[in-house]
Amino acid sequence: MANAERLDRERVIKAAVELLDSDGLDALSTRRLGTVLNSSPNVMYWHVGSMENLVGLATDQVFAELTLAIEGASWRDDLAQTARDLRLLFSRHPWLTEAFSTHPRIHGPAIVRFQNHLLQVCSRAGFEGFDLDWAGASVFTQVLGDAWGRTPSPMPKDRTTTPTEIVEQVRGDLADYPLLLERYEALANADPGTVDEASFEFGLTVLLDGLQARLNQRPPAP
Amino acid sequence: MANAERLDRERVIKAAVELLDSDGLDALSTRRLGTVLNSSPNVMYWHVGSMENLVGLATDQVFAELTLAIEGASWRDDLAQTARDLRLLFSRHPWLTEAFSTHPRIHGPAIVRFQNHLLQVCSRAGFEGFDLDWAGASVFTQVLGDAWGRTPSPMPKDRTTTPTEIVEQVRGDLADYPLLLERYEALANADPGTVDEASFEFGLTVLLDGLQARLNQRPPAP
DNA sequence: ACCTGAACACCGTTCAAGT
DNA sequence: ACCTGAACACCGTTCAAGT
Fold first, then answer.
1. Which UniProt keywords apply (chains A, B) (predicted)?
2. Which stretches of A126-173 are DSSP H helices?
3. What angle do CA A163, A168, A170 make, to 5 degrees?
4. In this structure, how many other beta carbons lie within 10 angstroms of the beta carbon of residue A18?
5. Residues near chain D strand, CB within 7 A
6. Measured distance CA(A31)–CA(A221) in Å, rounded
């Protein structure tokens, strides 16, 4: 099975990202990748070394999609913009949450560039020293946690269970917790898109207000 | 290979948690579990149905360790206490981050009880409606993100790489980002335990201040 | 009711061998 | 330098068969 063009690292990564975007992290296997590339079940090893490495390269690849513009507005606007862009990245590539949790030490040029951007924005805000690291990390964490909460259970054609059905299933477990049951029902009856959006903005506002409070305690040098 | 005592659901889950605690999520396989239980490679199927289900049951099992006491102090203290307890749970069972990200829809009595506790504390603080859900979720997200950032790369005996060596390895990638390099070095030279603690407390304070700011905008009814 | 053995369809990775 | 074939040591899951 000779393929039309010669393979290289870039084409392998591109095929990996396509597989990940369409079918998720589990779908990325050495053998499926070989099939997609019209090649042998283990082509990737020459080009990227290992599965773990390939996931890291694919992650770095999609991080390159981020614009990371500094608009010149307030640090609040810059940080909010960064968080919203990152959120969109995670929604375009839902496998990112799983990739980060199973391979926690991913790094690469685009990720490093993103980390630096976060630090720059937080630095402008007035953070220094370790506060700088922690402020940046809190933004990333916020988006990661938001995306995690939004990850749909992977049930491809499993008779798409409606929210109402889910509530029925857990109603027994919730018998002792009327407040929790009330919230489950409220969420089941709300429009998912609207709730997702508002939920993210709630978290973002809380985060920015919290950072602001921290800055107010340590006012900038005159 | 007859085993001394009869198996039941509880013993299977207990063995699973021990395997997870000692060797991580990857170590939990049907065959290893069978070996540990002095039984066949597929014993678990009769008792828990599937691997996915077993991970959920193990997660719920460890969530039962949480005390979830309401101290009667301020909502801030209660929420901080809950977050710190949850953090300790994640550090006792480092596989939890991966479990939540690979099986996002885990639920069970102990988890439901924890969710209810979060809602109760947030409700006392003055949150209502969807704000209640989002406030609770932000606490869980905060701890999850903190634990994620702390997950050590699983390199068992891989010549424990020192932080300084890591900095050397990425120094090339960081050439264009002096601020980022400076932060890497500062973190490499700091005591990990102290930094972890301070990092968590920073995030927690930011979160609580942010929630407080939200409450101030919507003062409680008189 | 509970457990075993064998099988199916997969994995990641290595390595000698090909071109 | 790049790719293939075959093999090794694993997976989760099913199912007929045992007790």
1. DNA-binding, Repressor, Transcription, Transcription regulation
2. 130-150, 163-170
3. 95
4. 14
5. A 1-3, 6-8, 34, 39-43, 46-47; B 28-32, 41-42, 45, 50-52
6. 59
Burial of B106 (0-12, 13-18, 19+ CB in 10 A): buried
B55 and B106 Cβ atoms separated by less than 8 Å? yes
Cα A176 to its chain centre, rounded Å, is 35
The verdict on a CB contact (< 8 Å) between B177 and A211 is no
- Look up the protein residue whose alpha carbon has the minimum distance to the C1' of D11: B29
Angle at A215 between CA A213 and CA A221, to 5 degrees: 150
Tens-digit pLDDT profile for residues B118-158: 999 999 999 999 999 999 999 999 999 999 888 664 444 34
> Is 0.85 topped by the overall pTM?
yes
Where exactly are the structural domains of chain A?
Answer: 4-49
Give the position of tokens 């973002």: A204
Q: For the domain bounded by A4-49, which CATH number is listed? A: 1.10.10.60
